[in-house]
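Priority: medium. Attachment 1 of 2:
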């Protein structure tokens, strides 16, 4: 019975990750927490480990399509590693009533991200405005700001699994002169850099249900490839609306599950 639910869920998650770049925090962790009934730390840890494998597949596809901006991807990714490790450890150190705050933190962040994405995609003046930064010609001040932001995102990713698939996508949408497809490809590259150390930390501290992980992967392999290919045909504005709607639905389901 577990396989009947987990394999199709893996396919659906893989397709959506490849299509939108939204990953562990926005889709996988809430699905594991709400639909499969895992505990919050288990859902966060497995979503991060799962993301390592699915994002490798999506990364290869986007790399072939030329959708990765390498300079900015490395700045975001490397700066987020220390926070990702520390946040992952913190999730298991906090116990009792404090543990119940983490799902609400996840839900609140996702609602904020969804609202800002909808605002950016829906208001013409925002959608057409000139972004201040060029990803290939970013100066020292810009690099420092990106690194500081990514360090915070890394810590949040460790405790909520929200990271490059939502918060960093949001910052890139508002700051960088890039198409939606290039943002998606770069975010998958960034996530791969940040998620590996975070996932390994969760695996070492909290462990993982390997059987369920394998079932998720079986479903997601083809879904991720199909979603990455489909992203070529989806208009930028439509892709942004899809991102926002998916993130908002994930937030509502997470808050509903965590509510006493």
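Attachment 2 of 2:
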């Amino acid at each position: 019975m577990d396989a009947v639910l987990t394999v199709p869920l893996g396919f659906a998650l893989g397709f959506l990750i490849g299509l939108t770049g939204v990953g562990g925090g926005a889709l996988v962790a809430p699905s594991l927490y709400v639909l499969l009934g895992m505990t919050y730390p288990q859902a966060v840890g497995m979503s991060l480990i799962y993301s390592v494998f699915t994002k490798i597949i999506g990364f290869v596809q986007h790399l072939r399509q030329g959708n990765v901006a390498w300079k900015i991807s490395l700045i975001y990714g490397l700066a987020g590693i220390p926070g990702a490790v520390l946040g992952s450890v913190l999730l298991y150190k906090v116990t009792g009533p404090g543990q119940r705050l983490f799902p609400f933190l996840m839900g609140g962040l996702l609602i904020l991200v969804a609202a800002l994405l909808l605002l950016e995609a829906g208001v013409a003046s925002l959608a057409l405005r000139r972004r201040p930064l060029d990803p290939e010609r970013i100066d020292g001040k810009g690099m420092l700001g990106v690194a500081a932001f990514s360090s915070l995102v890394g810590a949040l990713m460790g405790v909520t699994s929200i990271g490059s698939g939502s918060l960093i996508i949001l910052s890139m949408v508002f700051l960088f002169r890039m198409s939606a497809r290039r943002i998606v490809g770069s975010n998958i590259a960034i996530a791969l850099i940040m998620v590996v150390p975070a996932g390994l930390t969760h695996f070492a501290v909290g462990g993982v249900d390997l059987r369920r992980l394998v079932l998720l992967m079986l479903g997601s392999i083809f879904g991720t490839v199909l979603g990455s290919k489909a992203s070529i045909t989806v208009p930028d504005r439509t892709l942004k609306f899809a991102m926002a709607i998916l993130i908002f639905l994930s937030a509502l389901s997470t808050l509903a599950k965590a509510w006493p």
